[in-house]
Amino acid sequence: MFSMKHNPKLPARWLFVCAAALVASHAWGQTSPAPSTSGTQKAQGVLLDRIVAVVNGDVILESDVDEERRYEEIQPYREAGTFSRDKAIQRLVDRDLILQQAELQPEDKVSDEELNAQLATLRKDIPACKQYNCQSDAGWQKYLGDHGFTVEEFNERWRQRMELLKFIEVRFRAGITISDDQIKTYYEKTMLPEYAKRDVTPPKLETISKRIEEVLLQQQVGSLLQDWLKSLRAQGSVRIMTPGEVTP
């Protein structure tokens, strides 16, 4: 049985579409009467959405994949034309697994001030925002609207992103320490060769050590996160549907 429990982190629209998809999934292959003079003509049922994955009873829909595509287009540092549907589904599965675990922990809410500060930076960093004048509320609303989001929907999506990052940081980062030797090794073996390739004078180690430490922290958090997600997949029930497959 699929779970459609209310998740305050997700928009109410998601729950509605999810319910509609479940109703539609039972109607696939069936027909419904359509007005006609003979009364014998049938019209195929309309497919409202399609389930692409089931994660511990929670469903991921084709509309979620489309939303992920539109959301990715807004990311400021993404390469154009790099969207992959399969990778998007994997990201949605991972996000659902993390959300399910986050619900078991005390919530670390993101304040409106924190959200607005990040959004203000985002509106400056997105290259396409220049032509929309995203610094104005009207320009930002137009930019989001052209990508299929209302301001409220996007704010909720970005707040959820921030809350997930907080959850990941609290869970994994606290136990990680980066030594001076690790920082020095990264500087000498990774950074200096890159500066040499570009024929640019490198900054001194003491001026950039904090940034190197942050990079190494993120790498270790990412590695721990991937191992954790593999464990969650193995312990739980994750099913990705093949094209044309009907959910039992």
Task: Write up what this structure looks like.
- With 248 residues, the protein is mainly alpha-helical.
- The chain has a single domain, classed as Porin chaperone SurA, peptide-binding domain (Triger factor/SurA peptide-binding fold, Orthogonal Bundle), CATH 1.10.4030.10.
- The protein has nine helices and five strands, in the order αββββααααααααβ.
- The chain has helices at 12-27, 62-74, 85-102, 112-125, 129-132, 137-146, 151-172, 180-197, 205-235, and strands spanning 31-33, 42-44, 51-55, 58-61, 238-240.
- A three-stranded antiparallel β-sheet has the order 4-3-5. A two-stranded antiparallel sheet has the order 1-2.
- A hairpin with a 2-residue loop joins β3 and β4.
Give the topology:
Elements: H1 12-27, E1 31-33, E2 42-44, E3 51-55, E4 58-61, H2 62-74, H3 85-102, H4 112-125, H5 129-132, H6 137-146, H7 151-172, H8 180-197, H9 205-235, E5 238-240
